[in-house]
Design goal:
CATH topology of the largest domain in chain A: Dna Topoisomerase Vi A Subunit, Chain: A, domain 2
Number of domains of chain A: 2
CATH architecture of the largest domain in chain A: 3-Layer(aba) Sandwich
Radius of gyration of chain A: 22 Å
Largest interface: A-B, 51 and 51 residues
Helix content of chain A: 40-55%
Number of strands of chain A: 6
CATH class of the largest domain in chain A: Alpha Beta
Oligomer: homodimer
Order of helices and strands of chain A: HHHEEHEHEHEHEH
Largest sheet of chain A: 4 strands, parallel
Shape of chain A: globular
Number of helices of chain A: 8
Chain lengths: 198, 198
């Protein structure tokens, strides 16, 4: 219905996650009226990301170099390795400033329905990192959902026989939330994991 | 928090309408993992749109040529001119296949709060199109909201003294909707505009 290249743009935008046909149209019209330099900046950064960004050869975090900032940082504790599903989980954990160890990005979680088993994740790349006796604790920081739990269970069974300390993030009430609005599983976990009051 | 160019991409995506920080992050991560050819196609079409698309010199519709497809089409009725706010309104009306005349795209609607008066719209470009005696009817198809109504009222006062037939799109109940859910203004308009049953 639209003039050729405008329709092409709407189609391409509609392929992005969370962008439906209406949003794609809205963004396209915005770009049609935007300054050419603004549109060029977006196009340039798209190409730049694909040219520059690769995955850290050690932990598979996103990186602009062969090794990511965290793996290159000598102040990071090499005794603790935090296993996450995705790059965005690294960023979320870094934001807390609670963790000073290093990471390993699996690239997803075990999900048989989606055809993702242990072989599709970067588990074979994880194992050599644990064999040198430097890593003492592995923190499994997968998502607290079905796939994340399955992945954590799988890794626990794999790593514990290696004599490593394997830990998981605490489950419980989110800080700042209302107890009455917590779902029953979360509230149940919060009870099971209750600690002595300080 | 993110590696340089990834943050640049998130920033650029966050500038698009309807894309908040979370969506921008989600789209950026999708693009990080996407095939380079897919990302290049998006970047290319962005540049192509800015290079190729301009506005029709007659009606200010979006066009890849000096005149848009509709203005170039000799089968379109030159006696009827439909005035709309934006390019997307042209597309919406074309989709109905009810209108065989031509268009004039104002580029917005009168909105004093946003600093948009008649001089900011393409009204001075509309006038010469009405002076040659070819156009007999002007259909004011502005949005049925405050700004659209103000624009239509302004244009009616301007055009009627020129001896032109000036019409507006009918207001009333949307087809397929439930009468009980219609807002009172729409229902009031539907009553005021009632017609003899066929």
């Amino acid at each position: 219905m639209y003039e050729g290249v405008v329709q092409d743009l709407i189609d391409e935008l509609g392929r992005l996650p969370g962008v439906g046909p209406k949003s794609a149209q809205r963004i396209a019209f915005h770009l049609l009226q935007a300054e050419p330099t603004d549109v060029r900046r977006l196009a340039d950064v798209l190409m730049e990301v694909k040219a520059k960004v690769r995955f850290c050869s050690v932990c598979f975090n996103v990186s602009e170099d062969e090794q990511c900032r965290i793996c290159r940082d000598p102040r990071r504790d090499r005794a603790v390795l935090c296993v996450v599903e995705e790059y965005k989980d690294v960023v979320a954990i870094e934001r807390t400033r609670e963790f000073r160890g290093r990471y390993h990005v699996l690239g997803g979680a075990i999900s048989p329905i989606d055809g993702i088993g242990p072989d599709q994740l970067r588990i074979k790349e994880l194992m050599p990192r644990l064999n040198d006796g430097v890593v003492l604790e592995v923190v499994l920081a997968t998502d607290p959902n079905l796939e994340g739990e399955a992945t954590a269970t799988y890794l626990t069974r794999l790593l514990r026989p290696m004599g490593l300390q394997v830990t998981r993030l605490a489950s419980g009430l989110p800080v700042g939330g209302d107890l009455e609005y917590a779902d029953e599983v979360t509230l149940g976990r919060a009870f099971a994991g209750r600690r002595a009051a300080e």
